[in-house]
Amino acid sequence: HPVPDYLHSLLESLESVREGEVAQYIPTLATAEPDRFGVALATVTGRLHSAGDDQTEFTIQSISKPFSYAAALSDRGVDAVDEMVGLNPSGEAFNELSLEEDSHRPDNAMINAGALATHQLLVGPYAGRQERIDRFVDLMSLLAGRSLRIDRESYEAEMDTADRNLALGHMLRSHGIIHDRAEDVVAGYIAQCSVLVTVRDLAVMGACLASGGVHPISGERVLPSLVTRQVMSVMSSSGMYDAAGEWLANVGIPAKSGVAGGLLGALPGQVGIGVFSPRLDEHGNSVRGVEVCRRMSEDLRLHIMEAD
Ligand code: GLN
């Protein structure tokens, strides 16, 4: 079959790429097997292909951000979420302690400050810590088409070293952007980052965004199309950390990366892509993941700005 063959040859041609470093800040990431490599492609019409380490589970980390944003947008409405989280690239590190000047909103939902604000918005104003976590895990399970779970070890390790996220949480609470205890919102956000996924899960989740919120396999509507439009817009401008502009020009697929080495792409009306390879470049994006997407964009003509 042409698609699986293509995916296999793509992985093979990039196996010799050994640049980059596995994330070091917690033991569960520092001890990841650096040579793991998997890719999956899901069409909006429900075809799913994968190659390499496509059964390996890894923590979703920052790739959770577009989905908690999607959940908050559907639970609270676009206007209510826009009031608390901006839509512009920050031009700063993902965990920077900074907010928009007058509104005190985080710049966008793809940086940690914005992800914490987004997590607080899940479900409704009176929801508690566990309800918000359940909402997130349930949505992710629905999108993946299987029951997903939180990796306790990663969760505990992140909680032990959460000072930066706690600082962000306290800063947000001092400005009324979150109203629960910073500890509870940070714990929820870290739980959301600790959900275990495979590249096949990521590809299907991406295809769900790409299809305007209709699940590519079940055919069920999971998210409103206005929500997926907004999520993919923010992913385009802010999804790849400081490399977002370069990414848009060179790859041209709305995408989000995570510090465990996962990468999710979503090309509107067409496909979702999932890649996993733990070595990261200086921006924090998977080295091979970036290269896989760049090649696919070129070989399959997926660049969103390509006219013909
Ligand atoms: N859990 C990590 C954090 O909050 C996620 C970071 C990432 O994937 N960039 O710092």
UniProtKB/TrEMBL annotation:
<comment type="similarity">
    <text>Belongs to the glutaminase family.</text>
</comment>
<protein>
    <recommendedName>
        <fullName>Glutaminase</fullName>
        <ecNumber>3.5.1.2</ecNumber>
    </recommendedName>
</protein>
<keyword id="KW-0378">Hydrolase</keyword>
<dbReference type="GO" id="GO:0006537">
    <property type="term" value="P:glutamate biosynthetic process"/>
</dbReference>
<feature type="binding site">
    <location>
        <position position="112"/>
    </location>
    <ligand>
        <name>substrate</name>
    </ligand>
</feature>
<comment type="subunit">
    <text>Homotetramer.</text>
</comment>
<dbReference type="GO" id="GO:0006543">
    <property type="term" value="P:L-glutamine catabolic process"/>
</dbReference>
<keyword id="KW-0007">Acetylation</keyword>
<feature type="binding site">
    <location>
        <position position="241"/>
    </location>
    <ligand>
        <name>substrate</name>
    </ligand>
</feature>
<feature type="binding site">
    <location>
        <position position="165"/>
    </location>
    <ligand>
        <name>substrate</name>
    </ligand>
</feature>
<dbReference type="GO" id="GO:0004359">
    <property type="term" value="F:glutaminase activity"/>
</dbReference>
<feature type="binding site">
    <location>
        <position position="158"/>
    </location>
    <ligand>
        <name>substrate</name>
    </ligand>
</feature>
<feature type="binding site">
    <location>
        <position position="189"/>
    </location>
    <ligand>
        <name>substrate</name>
    </ligand>
</feature>
<feature type="binding site">
    <location>
        <position position="259"/>
    </location>
    <ligand>
        <name>substrate</name>
    </ligand>
</feature>
<feature type="binding site">
    <location>
        <position position="62"/>
    </location>
    <ligand>
        <name>substrate</name>
    </ligand>
</feature>
